[in-house]
Amino acid sequence: MIPIFGVAAEYKKLRKELRKAALEVLDSGHYILGPQTGAFEAEFASAMQAKHAISLSSGTDALEVALKALGIGPGDEVVVPTFTFVATAAAVSSVGATPIFCDVDESNLNITVKQIEAVLTPKTKAVIPVHLYGAPANMSEIMNLAVQKNLYVIEDCAQAHLAQWQGKPVGAFGHIAAFSFYPSKNLGAFGDAGAVTTNDSNLANACLEIRNAGRGLSGPTYEYARIAGNSRMAEIQAALLRVKLKGLKERTEKRIAVAKYYDKKFSKLPLILPPIGDGQTQSVFHLYVIRSEKRDELANHLKAAGVSCGVYYPLPLHRQKCYQHLNLKPEAFPNAEKASQTVLALPMHPYLSKSEISQVAKAVISFFKG
Fold it and tell me: Where do the structural domains in the chain lie, given as residue ranges?
């Protein structure tokens, strides 16, 4: 079965270097906030064109820490897309604020200014655009709106490492950005891990305190500047991520090449294809997601042909049990509703062989050609 993600293949490719890095940390006896963490943060900040990167224990924690650093809490509303992974909204709920769901644009399944404006209220404090599947949202328009309405912007870049909007990496537009290093992500750790990036030194310092039990950045060790938990990333994860970060650009280019091949093969099929980008505005294809009215039949056909596929996501957040108390009506989110019934992710990773890519394409084509 051709896998959707290349986690096992990537480990096999980098095994020697990864094991060496892990053993160096184990031998060092320094397992939390050590030199590997500092080095990774500097390297990741540089790669994302940000002044600061703060490593954290997960992508979900990255969102939550970002919200706390901005002072968002009870009584505040935060606009989030209803078609995304639950962490985007759950982080808002976790800090005591209220997630306000908005629909997504039909073209790329990201939120736009039109959808955001439709749900703004005097209580709106921030907006979290998600660069879904690795395709960038229109950050120019979103930032213009944020300035007009005095809103904070937290970019959810969990699936979008190195994606670009008009020649600039996503995560470099908002006040702060959250990244996930979940193992299947384009830059994946060996367990949970995440980070925030920002160009604001005050926000960076707040995140440093929040991740470390609220401990102040200066003064005695056991004096605390704020009430906070523990969101530190393990030193061994930083060492392993440093190994993977070195090849991230090359692996991203391979993802784009696979996407272009799929696009060429599928261009005449009755499918909605993901936005390919033009180099300046560029998806990095964490997932290659097609849309079909015959999604379920196509999925069964692919699995029978030895091709893995998946649905991301089968249930928008406004339909989730945990948010039924908001009493939202499905008809308010027509594009998200439609997407949940039609999206299907195909195998997408830089370790797919030419024969595997060809097999995937032939399996999809054969479904429609009979």
Answer: 7-245, 248-369
